Amino acid sequence: MVKQEDLPPPYSQSMDQGVQSRMTTGLLGQRIFVTISLLVCVVGTLFGIGVLGKRVEESSGGALAADATLLAPAGPAFSIWSVIYLGLAAYTIWQWFGVADRSLRERRTGWLAGVSMLLNAAWLLVTQQGWIWLSVLVIFALVVVLGMLVRNLADSPGHGPAERIVVDGTFGLYLGWVTVATCANVSAAGAASGISLGASGDQVIAVVVLLVAAAIGVVLAVRLGGRIAVAAALAWGLAWIAVGRLADGPLSVPVAAAAVVAALIVIAATLVARMRSTTRPVGAVG
């Protein structure tokens, strides 16, 4: 097999130019895909907030409202979406004007970022139709995509504080919050389908699900090297589940206590994983 370095200079330069051309074309395609995905995500969001359709809490027969199930976070929890959407917009701009063309980690995450935005929009549009079990499948797919994306980010450090905030911070929050939202989504689907084990039984199931969420948080902390944004969003969602069970209803002290314990477990596991990690850059926020 002839190696590039064995070729005469004109041929070697031609190969370099060909590779660079393909990389440039691929990066341009990625940027266009991410931009279109953001626009689709914005349209989906307009449906979700009631501008073009029903608000999320009013769709699917109200099954996704903040007081619909034992695992629904209280209303203020959803304000985290504003931060995530702002981060997604900043990420899209970063793709065009940042260091993406020189960053392998950006090329490894751009397509996944675009897919995550499309899945976000798909979830909002599916819930508009009341297809709540299909929304469960969509949000599971979203968690998988975000997990892959953040795993890719964890494999290499960012290029500075700005990139860590815009890229690692945004998708860390996105993954952590959607993990909690998945638990709430499954609970809502079950309730909408009339699945119930009675008041006590439903509380037991909710506690078990929260412990599973804590276990997932521990796994994410270990696998991702203790990323602050992931833990912060997870803890945020779990804390607001606790608030909802103590204030808004359905009321449940055991579920609230389990949510607080789950949040503390996630935070503790992340801090321990972060201290043990020797590959993460100091000050990384993802």
Q: How many structural units, i.e. domains? A: 1
Largest sheet data? none
Instruction: Give me the secondary-structure category.
Output: mainly alpha
Strand content: under 5%
Number of helical elements:
8
The coarse overall form would be globular
Uncertain parts: none
- Mind telling me the C-alpha Rg? 21 Å
| Beta-strand segment tally | 0
End-to-end C-alpha gap:
42 Å
| Helix proportion | over 70%
**Can you give the mean pLDDT?**
87
Helices and strands, in N-to-C order? Answer: HHHHHHHH
Structural features, described:
The protein is an all-alpha fold. The protein has one domain. Helices cover 73% and strands 0% of the residues. It contains 8 helices and no strands. It has helices spanning 9-48, 80-97, 104-128, 132-154, 161-192, 198-224, 228-248, 253-276. Helix 1 (9-48) runs antiparallel to helix 2 (80-97), helix 1 runs parallel beside helix 3 and helix 6 runs antiparallel to helix 7. The longest helix has 40 residues, at 9-48. The N and C termini lie far apart (42 Å). The mean pLDDT is 87.
